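Q: Structure for this?
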Amino acid sequence: MTFELFLFYVFSAALLYAATMVITQRNSVHSALFLVLAFCCAAGVWLLAEAEFLAIVLILVYVGAVMVLFLFVVMMLDVDQASDRAGYMKYAPVGVLIAVVLAIELMLVVGPGNFGLDKFASPIPHAADYSNTKELGRVLYTVYMYPFELAAVILLVAIIAAIGLTLRKRPQTRYQDPAKQVQVKAADRVRIVKMATEKKWS
Amino acid sequence: MHFDSSTLIPVLPEIFILTMVCLIMIIDLFLDESQRQTTYLLTQISLAVTIFITLLVSSPETQVVFDGSYIRDPMSDGLKVFICIISMVAFVYSKEYLLKHDQFRGDFFVLGLFAILGMMVMVSSASFLSIYLGLELLSLSLYAMVAFDRDSKTGSEAAMKYFMLGAIASGMLLYGISMIYGATGHIGFSEVASAVATSGTDNTVLVFGLVFLVIGLAFKLGAVPFHMWMPDVYHGAPTPVAMFIGSAPKLAAFALAIRMLVDGLEGLHADWQGMLIILAVLSMALGNVVAIAQTNIKRMLAYSTISHVGFIMLGILAGTNEGYISSMFYAITYGIMAVCSFGIIIAFSRKGFEADQLDDYKGLHERSPWFALMMLFVMFSMAGVPPTVGFFAKLFVLDAVISVGLTNIALIAVFFSIIGVFYYIRIIKLMYFDKPVDDTPFEASIDTKVVLSVNGTSLLILGLFPASLLSICTAAFG
Amino acid sequence: MELLDSFLPHGLATVIWIVLKIVLIVLPLMVLVAYYTLAERKVIGFMQVRIGPNRVGPNGLGQPIADALKLMFKEIILPTKANKVLFLIAPLLTLGPALAAWAVFPFDAELVLADVNAGLLYILALTSVGVYGVIIAGWASNSKYALLGAVRSAAQIVSYEIAMGFAIVGVLVAAGSLNLGDIVRAQDGSLFHWFWLPLFPLLVIYFISGVAETNRAPFDVAEGESEIVAGFHVEYSGMTFAVFFLGEYANMILISALTALMFLGGWLSPFQGTFLEPVFAWVPGLVWLFLKTAIFAFLFLWFRATFPRYRYDQIMRLGWKVFIPITIVWIMVVGLAVVLELPWWFD
C-alpha cells in the first residue's frame, strides 16, 4: 500500500464517520462541527486527486464562511430537540427502507462494474509545476463563460431575495448617520450667547 | 474558443433584460413611494423591448454560441415571446393586486424579471449546465416571490415548503445530470445525444441518471406523485405570485423537458416514454378528481394545473414532432388560460378580501356580466369545450398520442377530462344561476379591465382561428 | 538531508528532515511570540508614559519566560457542564492554523518549507479556519459571556474575511500568481516597484482587516473586557489560556509578515536599484523581511494604545459598506492597469 492510498483510506474513513455523525448527533452544534470535519476530510480526498484548488476553496468557502454562519445561527437558536424528534419513529421505517433501496441501487450502478479501471483509464499524474488554478480559470472564463455569468446572476438574486425578505423599515428605530456625525461643527451644537451684564441685584 | 461580438447577437434578449433589471433595481432605490409606478412602467417597457429584440434576432435556422451553452432556434424564439407576453399580462394584474392591497414594492417586479430571465435561459439552453442554472435562477426568484407578503403566515409556510421540495428536486436533477455526465462524458445536449447514439441505449448508468432527471423534471412540472407542493404554494402565495408561478414557468418547464429529453436523450425515448406515461396518467387522474373536492379556487386551480401538466406530458411522450408541437401548443394555451383565471380573481378581490373561495363567485353574472363572460371563456377553455382554444389543445395532443398507437392512454385522458369538466362547469353554475351573497361593486382599473377583456376573448379567438398559434409551434419543430 | 539518507530508509529520512525544518520554523517563532508580548507591554508602557515590566532579568527581558512558567503551573479549570473535548480542542484550533500557515511562507528566495503553487489560497483558507477556535471555545464553555464573545467574533471575522480576500485578489491580479515567492519576485526592482504604491488602498484594507481578523484593538469586541469580561476565553486558565494567547500573537505576526510580503516586497532589499544596493548586499533577505514585519507588528501595538474600541454596528458598517466596495473598485483599477500594462509595475 502506497502512502497516498493509505492517506486516501484515512480521509475516506474519517469522512464517512463524520458524515454519519452529522445525521445521528442529537446536538445540532455537534452535527455542524462534524460537518466541518467532513468538509476537511473531503478536501483531503480532493487534494489526493490533484484538485488542490477545489480542495482549498472548499475549506475557504464552506469551512471558513458557510459553516461559521451556520454555527452562528445554530448557537443562537434554542432548538427544541424533543419536538424535533416527535414522529421520528413513525417515519423511520419508511425512511430506512428508501435509504437502503437507494444505497443498494447506487452501489450497483456507481460501482466498478460501470466505472472500473477497464472502462476508464486512470488519469495521468500532472507535472509538479502544473497549476490547477490556472487551468480552471482558463476554462471558466472561456468555454464556461455563459454558465459562469449565470451563476453570478443567481447569486445576485440570492442577495436581493435575502435583503427583500429581511429588511424592514422600523420607524421607531433610531439610526446614526456617520456622515452627518462627522460633518457636525461646534457651532451646530453649542450656541454662545452674548448677554449684557445684568445690573447688580441689590 | 471562438469569440467575436457577433456571438452576442443571439443572446441579445437575455443581455438586454439583465441590463434592464439591474437598472430598474437601482432606479427603484431612488424612487419615492409615490413614484413607484415608474418601476412598473419600466418593467413593462423592458419586456416589450425584449419581445421586439427576440423577434429581431430570430431566424429559421439554429444558432449555437458560447461553446455549446446557448442555443437560439425557432422554438426558443416562440417560447420567449410567449413567456414575455404572458408575463406582461401577469404584471398588469399584479399591479392591480399590489395597489389594492398596499403591497406595491419594487422588488416584486425585479424578482419577476429575474424569473423571466431564468425562463429565457432555460428555453435556450444547449447544455445541462446552463439549463440547470436557468432553472435555479427561476426557482430562486419564485421562492422569494412566494414569501413576498412577509406578514402572511400561509405565505411563509408556502415559501418554505416550496423551497424545501424545490431544493430536493434540484438535487435529484443534478444527480441525474452527474450520472449522465459520467456515462457519456459530456454535458452539451448534442454531444450527449451523439454519445448515446454511439454507445447504445442499454447503459445502466444512463438509465439510472434518466430516472433522477425525470423525477426532478416531474417535481418542477408538478406531476403526480411529485405534486405535493403545488396546492400549498398556489393557496399560500399571494394571488399575483400564484398567477406568475402558474403561467409562464410552465412554458419554461415544457422547454426543460424538450431540451433534456428530446434534444439530449432522444435515444432513450423508449425508457422515458414509460416513465412519462405513469406520471401523465396519475397527474390527470389525481388532478381532476381531487379538484372536485376543493372549496378554495386557488387550490382548485392548482389541481387543475396538475391535470393540465399531465396533458403536456402526454404530448411529449408521444415522441414525434407532432406530439411536441401539440404539447407546445398546449403549454402556451395553458399559460394564457391560467393568467386569465387568476386575473379575474385579482380583479374581483379588494383590500381584505381575496375572492379565493368558490362561494365568492356566486352570482358574478349579476354584478359584472362582462367579466363573468370572461370567466366563462376561461372555464370552458380549461374544460376543453369547443370552440375555445382549450378544446383544440386537447384535440391536438390526443391526436398525436393516438397516431403513435397509444389509444388506451388517449381514452384515459378523455375519461378524466370529462370528470374535470364537472368542477369547471360548477363555477359557471355559481356565476350564472346562484344569487350573489355580497353586492359590493366590481372595481378594477381601466388597464386591468382592458387587458382582461383581451385576454379572455383571445381564448375564443384563438379557438376560432387556431392556425396562427399552431403555425408558430409547427415552425419550432419544423 | 544526505546525512540522514545515508543511514535511514528514504521515506523516513524525508519525514524526519521535514520535521526538522518545521522545528526550525516554529521554535524561533515561539520565541518571537514570547518577546512580542514583552514588546507590547513595553511599547504601550512607553506610550502611556510608564516603564512597563522591568523586574525579571535585565530590563525585564526574563518576563515572558516567567509568564510562561506561571501559566504552565496554573491549574486548568474545566467549568461544570462544559463540553470537555471541545473545550480543550478549541485553543489548539486557534494556534494550529496560525502555525500551519507558515509552511508556505518564503523567508528568502530559496528559504521556504513548501513551495506551493496555491500558497496564497492556502493561507487564506487557514486564516479563515482560525475562527473555529473562538467559536468552539465560546460555545463549549457553557457561559453566557463566552457565547456572546463567540457570536460577536464569528460575525466579525466572516465580514472582514471578504474584504481581506478581495484585497488578496488585488495582489494576485497584480502579481499574476498565487505562489508567495512569485508575488515577491513580481515586486522586484526598487522600493517603488513594491506593491504598496499601486495597491495602497488594498494595503490599508488588508492590514486593518487583519487587525479585525485577529480580534485585536480597536476591533476586540470578542474579548471586550469592559463589556463581556473576556469574551470567548473567560473560562480558560493556565495552559489552555496560554495557548489562546500564543495563537493570537502568532496570528498577529503572521498578518504582519504577510502584509510585508505582499505589499513591501518580502525579502527584497529596500535599496534595490539605488547606489546603496551593493553597500547593503551582505544583509540577508531574512533580515529585511524581519524589519518590514516589525513595522506592521508595531502598528498592531500602536493601534491598541491609541484607538478606543469600535462599537459593534460601526465595525459592521466599516467592513461591509466601506472596505468591500473600495476593494472591488480597486480590483477593477488594478485589473485595468494590468491589461493596459501600466509601465513601471505591470509592464
